[in-house]
Structures are given as structure tokens and as C-alpha cells.
Amino acid sequence: xxxxxxxxxxxxxxxxxxxxxxxxxxxxxxxxxxxxxxxxxxxxxxxxxxxxxxxxxxxxxxxxxxxxxxxxxxxxxxxxxxxxxxxxxxxxxxxxxxxxxxxxxxxxxxxxxxxxxxxxxxxxxxxxxxxxxxxxxxxxxxxxxxxxxxxxxxxxxxxxxxxxxxxxxxxxxxxxxxxxxxxxxxxxxxxxxxxxxxxxxxxxxxxxxxxxxxxxxxxxxxxxxxxxxxxxxxxxxxxxxxxxxxxxxxxxxxxxxxxxxxxxxxxxxxxxxxxxxxxxxxxxxxxxxxxxxxxxxxxxxxxxxxxxxxxxxxxxxxxxxxxxxxxxxxxxxxxxxxxxxxxxxxxxxxxxxxxxxxxxxxxxxxxxxxxxxxxxxxxxxxxxxxxxxxxxxxxxxxxxxxxxxxxxxxxxxxxxxxxxxxxxxxxxxxxxxxxxxxxxxxxxxxxxxxxxxxxxxxxxxxxxxxxxxxxxxxxxxxxxxxxxxxxxxxxxxxxxxxxxxxxxxxxxxxxxxxxx
Length: 516
Ligand code: GAP
Description:
Blueprint: H1 2-17, E1 21-23, E2 35-37, H2 39-57, E3 63-66, H3 75-79, H4 82-85, E4 87-92, E5 99-101, H5 102-128, H6 134-140, H7 142-163, H8 167-176, E6 193-196, E7 200-203, E8 211-214, H9 220-224, H10 227-233, E9 240-249, E10 264-274, H11 279-295, E11 304-308, E12 318-326, E13 329-338, H12 342-351, E14 357-359, E15 364-366, E16 369-376, H13 377-388, E17 389-393, E18 399-403, E19 414-418, H14 425-436, E20 442-444, H15 450-460, E21 464-468, H16 470-475, E22 477-482, E23 488-492, H17 493-504, H18 506-515
Parallel strand pairs: 3-9, 19-20, 19-21
Antiparallel strand pairs: 1-2, 4-5, 4-6, 7-8, 9-10, 10-16, 11-12, 12-13, 13-16, 14-15, 17-18, 21-22, 22-23
Helix pairs in contact: 2-13, 5-7, 5-8, 7-8, 11-18
């Protein structure tokens, strides 16, 4: 774990050094859990968004997009339940004065039991070598059994406390498990209290007329309140989906782990409207489709897993997370929820407007049920960075840091490098670049040795570099260098555009989603 923490620290400083992510307002000492994306970060982020958007709207004829406003009528948040129930249980340590989420402290405790079990297994696997039977060991080893039982008991108690919204019991679990504050090391805890996560502001100029409004904590409600607009204007037939990408805001209590938990972040959400009674079938289908979307990036299938929810929100009848193995453990990147007809019915009630769909096949009107897929752009960004970051030792002992980003997502697709800064090579390189820059993002670089320039491109994940040398002037060929293998091949200048376009096209990944 210590090694993983070390890698995470390196990832954060690498992100800053190479223009991916900067702390917001840095010259004023920053603003908690708010970040800015730099010149490479914004390209990667835009590519992630395009991958998601295209997978939704191009691959599904019945999914269309919208872009709703961040400011919405405040009653929307009453109807959605956010005013009354969008809370986190918080607890303070009286000695350090630090504030924590009670549920997170307990989840971390559960993860500790898992760690203990995994360590026992690792030790035994080393001791017994090939003869090791993991299954049998799990079923018989007393220490594994003891930790499994403790974990199970804690898990059950925790789930019940959450389901009952029993704040006293959450505190009691923290006391009974002897959980200490990581800063003060003491168990001097306050009571657990609920804390609403929505930011509010005022709209309108006079004190009398000003309206208290909220910065949206999710983009989904913009979709629900536009359901009829899209259905009618697009003559959409159920089942159909509405997709949206946009900013969301939450006043997170525990905002740590870089861009994993932010106060201003971006979501990519899709609400899929279906006939009542068919929702679980569609839930299963979207679960599999979304997992294929993640795995198609090629970062390694083992890095993903489903985590089905024990505690279902009162309006949901199924929910799962897609988790990615971050340097700090498996963490949620995406949520998939079967939200029944809760949101549309609630908006019907609060607005007084009928929100129903007439199904011509059934000759009947009903409130559609909804399957939601909801993924954070920033978390996805972090998972891709973490999954791509490699430190390699090369022949001769030299090291390189390389981001093995999926080529279609890389900020720069091609670096154009004249071998030397003279003899007409820069001019030839510029000529090639001026032709290719219409196809994909190219970067020209003539400074420093070719080795240093390759390292710079490796560090930002550029999948291909071409070198223009003296021979290029006579044979009109360049050397393409591949980022991951560092292999080089000689190709005619006239073919570079096609070769690179084929390799960096999003089409390659999108096709994988539909094939598997
Ligand atoms: N409409 C459903 C919804 O918002 P959620 O599980 O609260 O569900 C969905 O959020 C996704 O949004 C999460 O899986 C995560 O990727 C992202 N997300 C949520 N809170 C976030 C935060 N504070 N910072 C970054 N991403 C966040």
C-alpha cells in the first residue's frame, strides 16, 4: 500500500508538471477540492467526453443529448429529495478539530479487514508456492476466518444503521471498532450530524425579490424536467434515452484524494426511459454495456469490478457501481441505478403538470421507469491517468515515465520532430505538420536532443512521434516511433496521415463496445 501511495503522489506531481491538472487559485494558496485542467488535461478531458458522448448518441439511435442550465427552479430540488435528504453523516474529532464522514470512516475499517485477509493469503501463497490452494486456505485458515467474520458482522451492522438513518448507531460503531482520528490518534468523537451538500446562492437583485437557488448537485434533474420537451419535439418512442454532460457542485465534507472527490466536478449522465416492469431487464443490459465501455479502453479488465449496493435509496429497485482499481484501492467511478418512476412522478406532483407517456403499442398512458448511468468525468480522468502511468527502466539503466494512454484519448496524437534545427529540416517538418494538423492534434518540437524530446512526449502520452532527418529531404520518408514499444519504422510522408488517423481514431474503441 505504501508503494501505491508513493505512486499516487508521483501521479499528482506528474499531472502538474506536465500541464494536466493544477490546484485552483494556486497563487492564493488554492481552494479546497477545486482543480483546474491545464493544456494537456483539457485535451484528455475533452476526448473522454467525446468517447462517452459518441458511445451514447452514435451507437444508440434512441439516445439523444441535451445541455440544460446549471441554475434551475428551486422546487426541483425539493421534488428530487435533495433539499431534505442529500446529506452526509459527519463527525468531528474534538482533539484535532478535523471533520470526517462517519460512513467513510467505517468503510475504511471494513477495507482494513479485507487488507488483513489479503495479506494472510499473500504470505501463504509465497510459503506454499505452486501447491497453494487459495480457495481451501480461505475456507480453513483461522485468521482469515476470524477477519472474515468480523468484516461480515461490521458490514451487516453498518448497512442496518445506514438503512435506518440511525446516527447514534453510526457513532457507536466508530467507538466499538476503536477507530481513531488519523491526525490526533484519539477516539474523542462528537455526535454524528447530518450535513446538506448543496451549495446555494441568490438570484435577483433586491433582498425582497431574491430567490434562493442551488447549484445543481447532479445533472440528472435537468433531464427529468425536460423529459416531455425532448419526447414530444423528437417524437421519441419508449424505450429511449437522454444524455447530458455538465458541471455539478457538492459541498463535500471530506474532499481528499486529488480529483477523486471535488466540490466542483463534471458528470456524464444518461436517463433511459422504459416501460414499467421492464426496468430490471434494461438495468442488466446497461450494466453490461457500461462495463464494456470501460474495458474497451484496454487498461486491463482486472482493474474493474461491479459493486452491488446493499443500501438502496428508497426510490431505487436496483443499483450497482463500476469500480476501478485506483492507487488507493477499488473505488466507484460510475453508478448505474434503476430509479423506478420516482423522479418523473415527483416532478408531476410538485409542478402540477402531467408527465406521462402515451404508448401507442399498449394504447395506454403511464409514467415511464428510468435506468440511469452516471459517471464522473474527473474520476474517469483519474482512473485513466492511474491506469496509464508507468515507470520503466530501459536497456542501459536509463528510466522513463510514460503515460500509456489509449491513443484515441491522448492529448497529442503526433509529435513532429526535425532531427536537427538546421539544413532545411525544420522547414520540411513544418510543411508536414501544416498538412497533418487538420486531421489530429500535432505538436512541433525542435528543442533539445531527440532522446529528451521523446521523453517529453512519453510523459504526456503521445502515442506517435515522427522524426524528419536529412534523408527525408531526398526520399520523402520519415521515421515513426511508437510510444509503448519504442520501435521505429520508416514510412513515406504521404502515408503518415492515414497510418496515424487509423490508429488514433475513436472508432477503434467504439467498435469494441459493439463487438464484445
Ligand atoms: N444522478 C446520480 C448521481 O449523481 P452519484 O453516485 O452521486 O449519482 C455519480 O454520482 C458519479 O459522479 C459518481 O460515480 C462519481 O463518478 C461522480 N461524482 C460524484 N460526486 C463526485 C465528487 N464530489 N467529485 C468527483 N466526482 C464525483
